[in-house]
Amino acid sequence: MLQSLPINTVRQFIRMRALLQRVLEAKVVVEGEVTGQIQHGILVFLGLGKDDNLDKGKKLIDKILKYRFFDDEQGKMGWNVSQAGGGILLVSQFTLMAQTQKGLRPDFGPAMPPAQAKELYDQLVDYAKSQFAQVETGIFAADMKVHLVNDGPVTFQLEIE
């Protein structure tokens, strides 16, 4: 069935997404309380699709940790978050999985169902913390207020098949 769909539609269903923002500082506030906070580092908005799994998620976390978008001694994007001495703030965001090509309202059909997404998100947070010491988070499915000071601005979208 998927083979008969246009390639852009198929990609919506098979790619885990992360929107990375290089920040000078970032925090998540839920009901007036800070749930996660970093200074210099990466704010990661993570979108989980119906076909995503722990193996894809681990590949994405590994890529985020190795991705070089911090300035090195020559002022080029040569350092990853560890080399730059930064932290990671990991925030679930199902809206990254929305289809927006048609109409005036986003279609969240490609997003993973909430119960399944929470389980996978929790596993990915555990994995990230096992790979990197400074990982903070928001609260899954909460009404989060995300505060950030974007550095650059530098923003990238990563996808894993």
Structural write-up:
- With 161 residues, this protein is of the alpha/beta class.
- It has one domain: 3-Layer(bba) Sandwich (D-tyrosyl-trna(Tyr) Deacylase, Chain: A), CATH 3.50.80.10.
- Helix content is 24%, strand content 36%.
- The chain has three helices and eight strands.
- The chain has helices spanning 7-14, 54-66, 114-131, and strands at residues 16-30, 33-38, 41-47, 70-71, 77-79, 87-92, 135-137, 145-160.
- The strands form two sheets. Strands 1, 2, 3, 6, 7 and 8 form a six-stranded mixed sheet that branches. A two-stranded antiparallel sheet has the order 4-5.
- A hairpin with a 2-residue loop joins strand 1 and strand 2.
- Helix 2 (54-66) packs across helix 3.
- The chain is globular and about 45 Å long.
- It starts with 6 loop residues before the first helix and ends with a strand.
CATH architecture label: 3-Layer(bba) Sandwich
Number of helices: 3
The portion of residues assigned to helices is 10-25%
Contiguous low-pLDDT stretches (5 residues minimum) are 9-13
Beta strand count: 8
Oligomer type: single chain
